[in-house]
Amino acid sequence: MEVNLTEANLSHSERFKSELISLLNEKQRSIWINMQQVTYVDSSFLGALVAALKHAISIQRDVVLISLQKDIDDMLKLIRLDKVFKIYNTEQEAKQAIV
User: Fold this and answer.
1) Residue 10 near residue 44, CB atoms below 8 Å
2) Residue 88 contacts by C-beta under 8 Å, 6 or more apart in sequence?
3) Which of 35, 44, 76, 77 is least surrounded, with the fewest CB atoms within 10 Å of its CB?
4) Which pTM value belongs to this model?
5) Could you read off the pLDDT of 43-86 as tens digits, one per residue?
6) Mapping DSSP to helix (H, G, I), strand (E, B) and coil, where does residue 85 land?
7) Domains of the chain, with CATH numbers?
8) Beta-carbon neighbour count of residue 76 at 10 Å?
9) Calculated CA dihedral for residues 43, 47, 50, 56, nearest 10 degrees
10) pLDDT tens for each residue of 7-41
């Protein structure tokens, strides 16, 4: 799944969370989210990511974040979400680590 937004904010968070949960419920083993285009993430969108991850864990699935911009990667490290999400620089890196 690619996030085609530059600003991931409140106006997109509910729909995003619903889509992720639907994909997870469709028996997807893991959801890979490419965030290469995203330059800004607000707390509501982070909440949607965390809610989807919480749901994924409850049904033994994964949420993987790929290609984060440096500012977003730094923010996730600051609030320690890098400890709960699987984060990779590229899809190739994720494939090598997960397979």
Assistant:
1) yes
2) 64, 65, 66, 67, 94, 97
3) 77
4) 0.89
5) 999 999 999 999 999 999 999 999 999 999 999 999 999 999 99
6) coil
7) 7-98 (3.30.750.24)
8) 20
9) -150
10) 888 899 999 999 999 999 997 788 999 999 999 99
Element (H or E) spanning 30, and its range? strand 30-34
In angstroms, rounded to a whole number, what is the distance separating the alpha carbons of residues 78 and 58?
A: 25
80 residue type, one letter: R
**Strand pairing partners for 34?**
2, 66
- Number of helices (H), then strands (E), belonging to the chain: the values are 4, 5
Cα–chain center distance at 18 = 13
CA–CA separation, 72 and 67 (whole Å): 10
User: Which amino acid, one-letter code, is at 81?
Assistant: L
Question: What is the CA angle 82-87-90, rounded to 5?
Answer: 155
Whether 4 shows a pLDDT value over 80: the answer reads no
- Decide: 29 and 64 in contact? Cβ < 8 Å: no
